[in-house]
């Protein structure tokens, strides 16, 4: 136990947390059923370079059915449970949607009583902490592991494995087989740490295993400098998370991270598999499924082949059948800049045997296609896994998996019918859709206890284990009392947020205003800039026709930009600068308030989402694979303003467009413009006076007093083609935003729409998503 607890007197918040954590970990876990994994059940491993669990204390208490009683006891002893829970560190081993999805999936796997585990990396530094200084993003290291380690994890030093990089490949011939030996490889130790993932009221315990790299003692050269270098080179593998979201960087360290994860993870899985005496290698597909979260862990395909062929001496065909039966791949983006392509020379140098296997996979695949006739393919250029000195990881992942899925209907359909058309023609049954989901335990029960309690008062507790039962709320759509209470809950959540923001930033927010929220990573395609253009427009209205602003609004932004993504950082500067000007403009007072909340993360999201009135999901159609923030806000009774993109489309199918603020051009139109190059932002600009005024503000000095300050952004829209079609969608966005304010005036109708949104949000529980993966991809029996 922590040394800190040895003082006399009342316990500090973090000390109470230490006690609660140890209580859960040490006392409760050994009594739960699967403290030792039951290997007769098929095991699923979710391989991901990112996990974004946030804090565990409330989740674990909730799952153990101790949350309410624990809160009561704390209150009885004059502790504020919220303050205690908030003293837990927020583990940010991920960037955004992809990592958070992985964590929601682990939560659902355990809740549905599947043996489904996570495999990831234990980065010493998670996603950077963001500060805003002089309107600019500043990145600070996120040292999330405390002095006493991380309270939820357990180290298993004795189960460390060795990972090999580099070396010289020597082929030979033995027992009628080709053999491959790597001479003089660099060897690095991988140490597993396990974080328990508890099921909801079902006593299940699964694990998230995260690996840490260390140098191997005894191997190091004795000379100090050489020793330090070797140690450094090993440890740097798990030193930090690459802060890029949906963007790929061909850095050798990232490649080493990826191989380190798959090689370590696979060794652990196979060791545990063979612990059961009756398990034979050919049983693998019956006992094991591996899901890869985007292509980041796609090297598991050649790695499993290497192990089966070189270590277990299987023939290529046998090994290939096992590999493709075990592995399946989820694609999370169509954006070209996010599709990983590893330079051949890097892979050859770092992983010589793996490279050879990829070449062989590719050789056989190309032959197979050629044999069938090349007609579906333009040329080898669009089918070869290795092309122009690059390894196309998405192609490798498709060829080496039995199932490939996208994460929302539209995305899966573009993936199948456009981006990977030739592949889906060749493998007609391989492509499928699994629309994303979110954990309703985390995002409704934990984040919004007031709403959760109210829902249970109305329809009982069934929705907690069967979220689609939220539909029972539809009975109350015309009940004025219920709608009034719903509005009171939103109000209380808004006060909770306002107080917190006041305490942390000193900023005053008008609670009665409409809270208009855009929280997500900063990306050109997510179009935070379009939101800002609308704000600039409203600012003009404040000056020219103030009576047109009928509803005061608070715009809330939260977003981190990848440190190397300069355009995204410029938009953060712009938002912060505009916020500063508007918030001190007397003519905007009581009408417009703009906030950029620094350091957006999972814990912040838990405060903001229950307080949102409007959820901004305004990506350029076809660019957002799914989105999951859209689902979280819907479930918490916000109305969505959005384009027909990602899961927004399914949302409107559930609730009808009457309960959704739709705007903007459709995906087909965007894709057509991209093909024919005929989009002209200039033309739109010339015809829209509002737009002219708004864009002039970027270069007339009215934001910072400096006319060149935002010239680059102005240029990107007017002279550099407006890649994300902001000007094209500006008019319809402004119009629909105007409908938003008109409808907000009629509180009862508004609340009715909120209720309808909540009632249909059960479909977006990750329990539904995971059930679909389980049945359709992993072949699990519920
Ligand atoms: N996404 Br690829 C990430 O967050 N990071 C990535 O590296 C890649 C995708 C997101 C998608 O942008 C988002 O639309 C989706 O909802 C999420 O993955 C989960 O599927």
TrEMBL record:
Q: Which InterPro entries match?
A: Glycg_phsphrylas, Glyco_trans_35, Pyridoxal_P_attach_site
Q: Name one GO molecular function term.
A: 1,4-alpha-oligoglucan phosphorylase activity
Task: Write the Enzyme Commission number(s) for this entry.
Answer: 2.4.1.1
Key word Transferase present in the record? Answer: yes
Reaction it catalyzes: [(1->4)-alpha-D-glucosyl](n) + phosphate = [(1->4)-alpha-D-glucosyl](n-1) + alpha-D-glucose 1-phosphate
* The protein's required cofactors: pyridoxal 5'-phosphate
Q: Name one Pfam family in it.
A: Phosphorylase
Keywords, alphabetical: Carbohydrate metabolism, Glycosyltransferase, Pyridoxal phosphate, Transferase
Membrane-crossing ranges are: none
The similarity annotation says: Belongs to the glycogen phosphorylase family.
Protein purpose = Phosphorylase is an important allosteric enzyme in carbohydrate metabolism. Enzymes from different sources differ in their regulatory mechanisms and in their natural substrates. However, all known phosphorylases share catalytic and structural properties. Allosteric enzyme that catalyzes the rate-limiting step in glycogen catabolism, the phosphorolytic cleavage of glycogen to produce glucose-1-phosphate, and plays a central role in maintaining cellular and organismal glucose homeostasis.
What's the protein called, per UniProt? Alpha-1,4 glucan phosphorylase
Originating organism = Alkalicoccobacillus murimartini
Its taxonomic placement starts with:
Bacteria, Bacillati, Bacillota, Bacilli, Bacillales
């Amino acid at each position: 136990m922590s040394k800190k607890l040895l003082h006399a007197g009342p316990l500090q918040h973090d000390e109470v947390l230490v006690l609660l954590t140890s209580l859960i970990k040490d006392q409760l876990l050994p009594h739960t059923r699967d403290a030792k994994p039951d290997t007769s059940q098929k095991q699923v491993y979710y391989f991901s370079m990112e996990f974004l669990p946030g804090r565990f204390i409330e989740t674990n208490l909730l799952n153990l059915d101790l949350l309410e009683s624990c809160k009561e006891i704390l209150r009885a002893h004059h502790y504020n449970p919220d303050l205690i829970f908030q003293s837990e560190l927020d583990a940010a081993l991920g960037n955004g949607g992809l990592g958070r999805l992985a964590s929601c999936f682990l939560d659902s796997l355990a809740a549905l009583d599947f043996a489904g585990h996570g495999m990831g990396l234990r980065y010493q530094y998670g996603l950077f902490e963001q500060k805003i200084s002089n309107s600019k993003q500043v990145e600070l290291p996120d040292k999330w592991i405390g002095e006493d380690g991380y309270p939820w994890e357990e180290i298993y030093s004795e189960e460390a494995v060795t990972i090999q990089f580099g070396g010289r490949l020597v082929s030979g011939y033995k027992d009628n087989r080709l053999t491959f030996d790597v001479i003089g490889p660099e060897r690095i130790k991988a140490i597993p740490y396990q974080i328990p993932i508890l099921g909801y009221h079902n006593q299940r315990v699964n694990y998230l295993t995260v690996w840490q790299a260390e140098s191997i003692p005894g191997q190091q050269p004795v000379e100090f400098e050489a020793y330090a270098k070797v140690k450094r080179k090993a440890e740097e593998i798990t030193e930090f998370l690459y802060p890029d979201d949906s963007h790929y960087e061909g850095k050798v360290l990232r490649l080493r991270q990826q191989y380190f994860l798959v090689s370590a993870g696979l060794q652990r899985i196979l060791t545990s598999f063979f612990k059961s005496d009756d398990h034979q290698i050919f049983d693998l597909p019956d006992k094991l499924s591996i899901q890869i979260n985007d292509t980041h862990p796609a090297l598991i395909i050649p790695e499993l082949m290497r192990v089966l062929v070189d270590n277990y001496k299987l023939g290529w065909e046998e090994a290939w059948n096992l590999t493709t039966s075990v592995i399946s791949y989820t694609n999370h983006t169509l954006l070209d800049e996010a599709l990983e392509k590893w330079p051949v020379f890097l892979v050859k140098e770092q992983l010589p045997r793996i490279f050879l296997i990829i070449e062989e996979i590719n050789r056989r695949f190309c032959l197979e296609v050629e044999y069938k006739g090349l007609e579906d393919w333009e040329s080898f250029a669009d089918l070869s896994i290795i092309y122009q000195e690059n390894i196309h990881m998405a192609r490798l992942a498709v060829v080496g998996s039995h199932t490939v899925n996208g994460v929302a209907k539209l995305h899966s359909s573009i993936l199948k019918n456009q981006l990977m058309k030739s592949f889906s023609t060749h493998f007609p049954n391989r492509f499928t859709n699994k629309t994303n989901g979110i954990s309703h335990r985390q995002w409704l029960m934990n984040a919004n206890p007031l709403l959760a309690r109210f829902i249970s008062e109305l329809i009982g507790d069934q929705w907690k284990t069967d979220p689609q039962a939220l539909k029972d709320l539809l009975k109350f759509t015309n009940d004025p009392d219920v709608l009034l209470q719903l509005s009171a809950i939103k109000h209380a959540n808004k006060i909770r947020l306002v107080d917190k923001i006041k305490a942390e930033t000193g900023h005053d927010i008008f609670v009665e205003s409409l809270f208009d929220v855009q929280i997500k990573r900063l990306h050109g395609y997510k179009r935070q800039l379009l939101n800002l253009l609308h704000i600039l427009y409203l600012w003009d209205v404040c000056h020219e026709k103030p009576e047109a602003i009928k509803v005061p609004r608070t715009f809330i932004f939260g977003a981190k930009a990848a440190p190397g993504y300069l355009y995204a950082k410029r938009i953060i500067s712009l938002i912060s600068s505009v916020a500063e000007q508007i918030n001190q403009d007397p003519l905007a007072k009581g009408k417009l308030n703009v906030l950029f909340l620094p350091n957006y993360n999972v814990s912040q999201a838990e405060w903001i989402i229950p307080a949102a009135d409007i959820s901004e999901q305004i990506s350029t159609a076809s660019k957002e694979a799914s989105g999951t923030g859209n689902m979280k806000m819907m479930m918490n009774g916000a109305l969505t303003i959005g384009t027909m993109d990602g899961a927004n489309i399914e949302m409107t199918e559930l609730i009808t467009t009457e309960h959704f603020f739709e705007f903007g051009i459709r995906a087909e139109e965007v894709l057509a413009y991209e093909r024919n190059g005929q989009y002209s932002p200039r033309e739109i600009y010339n015809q829209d006076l509002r737009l002219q005024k708004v864009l002039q503000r970027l270069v007339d000095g009215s934001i910072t007093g400096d006319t060149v300050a935002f010239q680059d952004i102005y240029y990107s829209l007017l002279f550099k083609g407006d890649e994300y079609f902001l000007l094209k969608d500006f008019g319809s966005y402004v119009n629909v935003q105007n409908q938003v304010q008109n409808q907000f005036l009629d509180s009862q109708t508004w609340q009715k729409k909120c209720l309808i949104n909540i009632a249909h949000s059960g479909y977006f529980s990750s329990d539904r998503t995971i059930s679909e993966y389980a049945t359709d991809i992993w072949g699990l029996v519920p």
